[in-house]
Write a structure and sequence with these properties.
This protein is α/β, with parallel strands linked by helices and 362 residues long. It contains 14 helices and twelve strands.
Length: 362
C-alpha cells in the first residue's frame, strides 16, 4: 500500500479539526461580564418583507425579553402579505410602513428597511435582527453586557440551528465547514471578518460614525460590508462567547438554501482571504478521504464522519443522520458554490425577495 497517497486527505482532515477544536469551548463558555450600573436603552430593529409566517414566533420571543429598557421596531418593507397586520397585534411593537426606495440611488431592500428603522430608533444600542430568528429571554441582557465590557462597537453572535426537517439535517457539515473557513473567534482583520446579519448589535455612536446602512446601500448583503467599515474606522468587533442568544431556521427548502448561499457567496467573495478556496478544497478532500476506496481513504473518511457527528451537536439540533449523509451535504455545498462562481463570472443579475439586483450589486 502506498501510504503517501492518503497523506493529503489526512492533512485536510487535521486542518478541518484544528480549525474547529477551539471554538466549541468559547461557544459554550459561561462568560459573565460585570453588569452596568445603568442598562442602556436598546432598540431592536426587524426588517420584514412578506414575513407573516415567521413574525409570530420572533415577536413572541421579543415580548418576553428580560431587559429593563427596550423597544421593538418592525419595518414593513412593502409586504404583500399580512406582515404589518401581524406585527400590529403585539403591544410592544412599533410598526413602520416602509416607503419606496429612492429612485436617484440604488438601495438593497434590507439596507433601506434597516436605514428607516435606525432613523426612528431611540436606543443607545441598535440590534438589527431577522424575522426568522427567535430570541432567548436573557439574550439581550447577556449581549449588551458583553458588548460594553469588550469595548467593541459591534457585537455579532452564532445562532442555534433549529432543524426539524429531514433535509435540513444535511446543513450540519455545511455549517461546520463555513465556521472552519471563517474562524469566528479569531481577532478580526481585513479578509478575516466574521459577523452574521441575523444578529448585529451596534453602539449607536459607532453605527452613525461609519454612515450606517446608507454606507453599504448598494451591496448584495449588509453584514460583511458593515463589519469591514467598522474595522477600517478603528472600531472593535466582538463575537459573542457563551450560550446561544437566539435560534434560527434559515432555509426551509433546498431551493432557499441554494438561493441564499449564492447571494451570501457573492457578497462575501471580495472580503474572503485569497487562500479560502484552497483551504476549502483541502478540507473537503480531508472530509471525503480524497474519495479513495482503499483502506487509508476509508479510514480518513470514517474519521471525518465521526468528527462531524461530534462537532455539529454544538451548532443545533443536528442528528446522526446528517453526519451519515455528509457526502450529500458536501456535494450540495460544492454545487451551490459552483453556481455562485458562475454568477460572478457571467455577471448574472440576482433576484432576492422579489427584487432584481444588477451584477455589480448596485
Amino acid at each position: 500500500m502506498d501510504h503517501s497517497s492518503w497523506l493529503v486527505p489526512a492533512g485536510g482532515l487535521v486542518l478541518f479539526a484544528m480549525r474547529l477544536l477551539p471554538w466549541r469551548q468559547l461557544f459554550r463558555a459561561k462568560v459573565t461580564p460585570p453588569e452596568p450600573s445603568v442598562w442602556p436603552r436598546v432598540t431592536v430593529i426587524v426588517p420584514a418583507r412578506n414575513e407573516e409566517a415567521h413574525l409570530p414566533r420572533l415577536l413572541s420571543s421579543l415580548a418576553v425579553l428580560d431587559y429593563p429598557d427596550y423597544e421593538v421596531i418592525v419595518i414593513d418593507d412593502r409586504s404583500t402579505d399580512g406582515t404589518a397586520a401581524i406585527a400590529a397585534t403585539f403591544d410592544r411593537v412599533k410598526v413602520v410602513a416602509g416607503v419606496d426606495r429612492p429612485e436617484h440611488r440604488r438601495w438593497g431592500g434590507k439596507q433601506w428597511a434597516c436605514h428607516q428603522g435606525a432613523a426612528v430608533a431611540t436606543g443607545d444600542i441598535l440590534l438589527f435582527t431577522d424575522a426568522d430568528t427567535e430570541h432567548y429571554p436573557d439574550s439581550v441582557r447577556r449581549a449588551v453586557a458583553q458588548l460594553l465590557s469588550s469595548g467593541a462597537g459591534l457585537l455579532s453572535a452564532l445562532p442555534y440551528h433549529a432543524n426539524p426537517s429531514l433535509w435540513e439535517q444535511l446543513l450540519g457539515p455545511f455549517q461546520l465547514l463555513i465556521i472552519a473557513l471563517t474562524a469566528p473567534f479569531a481577532p478580526p482583520r481585513p479578509r478575516r471578518l466574521f459577523v452574521i446579519g441575523q444578529y448585529l448589535m451596534f453602539r449607536r455612536e459607532a453605527y452613525l460614525a461609519i454612515g450606517g446602512h446608507e454606507a453599504v446601500a448598494g451591496d448584495f448583503a449588509e453584514d460583511l460590508p458593515l463589519a469591514n467599515l467598522m474595522v477600517a474606522s478603528g472600531h472593535l468587533i466582538h463575537v459573542y462567547r457563551g450560550p446561544n442568544l437566539f435560534s434560527v431556521r434559515m432555509y426551509a427548502s433546498i431551493t432557499e438554501f441554494v438561493r441564499g448561499w449564492r447571494r451570501n457567496f457573492r457578497s462575501g467573495f471580495i472580503y474572503a482571504s485569497p487562500l479560502a478556496g484552497l483551504w476549502a478544497t483541502w478540507m473537503i478532500i480531508g472530509i471525503t478521504g480524497g474519495m479513495r476506496a482503499d483502506l487509508g481513504g476509508l479510514v480518513v473518511m470514517g474519521l471525518g464522519g465521526l468528527f462531524i457527528a461530534w462537532r455539529q451537536r454544538a451548532l443545533g439540533r443536528f442528528r446522526l443522520i446528517g453526519a451519515w449523509l455528509w457526502p450529500l451535504s458536501i456535494g450540495l455545498f460544492t454545487w451551490a458554490t459552483l453556481l455562485a462562481i458562475s454568477d460572478l463570472v457571467l455577471r448574472r443579475d440576482m433576484v432576492w425577495k422579489g427584487r432584481a439586483y444588477g451584477a455589480g450589486g448596485r
